[in-house]
Amino acid sequence: MVTTQLTQSLRTSCTQTDASARSCNGSRTSCCRGTSRQLRARLQVLRIGGDLMTARVAVVTGGARGIGREIACRLLSDGHRVAILDVLESATKTAGELSDRGRCLGLRVDVSDEGAVADAFTAVSGALGPIGVVVNNAALTAVHRPWESVTGDQWDRTMAVNVRAAFLCARAGIEQMRPQRWGRVVNLSSVTFLSGQRHLIDYVSSKGAIVGLTRSLAREVGADMITVNAVSPGSIRTEIDVENFPDQAAVAAQQAAVQAIPRRGTPADIAGVVSFLCSEDASFMTGQLLNVDGGWLMH
Ligand SMILES: NC(=O)c1ccc[n+]([C@@H]2O[C@H](COP(=O)([O-])OP(=O)(O)OC[C@H]3O[C@@H](n4cnc5c(N)ncnc54)[C@H](O)[C@@H]3O)[C@@H](O)[C@H]2O)c1
Predict the structure, then answer these.
(1) Which domains does the chain have, with CATH numbers?
(2) What is the mean pLDDT of residues 59-79?
(3) Of 211, 215, 224, 219, whose CA–CA distance to 177 is shortest?
(4) Which residue range or ranges hold the Ketoreductase domain (predicted)?
(5) pLDDT for 225
(6) CA atoms of 112 and 105, how far apart (whole Å)
């Protein structure tokens, strides 16, 4: 099933619809001279915005929309090849919108399903090459309800998508990173873990677990030159945020009152930090939680 989707995805031509999609086609990239043909074929060294970096294969979970889509777009623009794994059917369409050069694949996958994750990672490396970057962005986003009303099944589902999936994808990715002696795992936490927000007990608990996973995994894989970090977004305007909070003017005013930088956060604010964590510049940084919230919480 994953293989069929992959074939379809590779055949998908560009259907760019907006300015952000146009910026994702790697037009800033150029091959660096002086590298041996063999090495170039394997790693494709790129000069981007004045910085030398190495193009990799990146998996972005939950990349069909919102923050994940913007991360996929930014990593493509950095020169990486990107696979979007999302439970939404639109994963393939998003991949087609982001790149017209077969550098972006979209696969419909439930990342909490162990077998599906294994199949997807095999399919991605078969099509794009060995995976060097995993961004665990997929999540069931916050459903506000008093803590006593959360059922055991709801708790388990939130943990499965928000924590188990990150473990499964990190494990599948790291298996391919180890022989490369290079790798990046970036996990999406949330500012709600730091604030201990009420009426979100399963979500907040899962976002705390992501920090534990980040720290423990960082210790285990550092010797393989693989870094593991987490990013905690503050209040970011995405499709799901607008759906959950239709009165966006009120949200903007509320955030302006508590943040040092009085504007709404955007998916690009998060994608820029993820891009840095995936770069060579972040090679000596691991096990960290970076708060990207306009100075809402300071710790
Ligand atoms: N938007 C914010 O204000 C905010 C704040 C803090 C943290 N975050 C975190 O940032 C990340 C992205 O948030 P967003 O606002 O873009 O939300 P979103 O709901 O738009 O994105 C989540 C994506 O994950 C996908 N997904 C859900 N379950 C899946 C599964 N089982 N398998 C594969 N894909 C699955 C969804 O289809 C969606 O595309 C999440 O981890 C979220 O917790 C967001």
Answers:
(1) 2-292 (3.40.50.720)
(2) 98
(3) 224
(4) 56-234
(5) 98
(6) 19
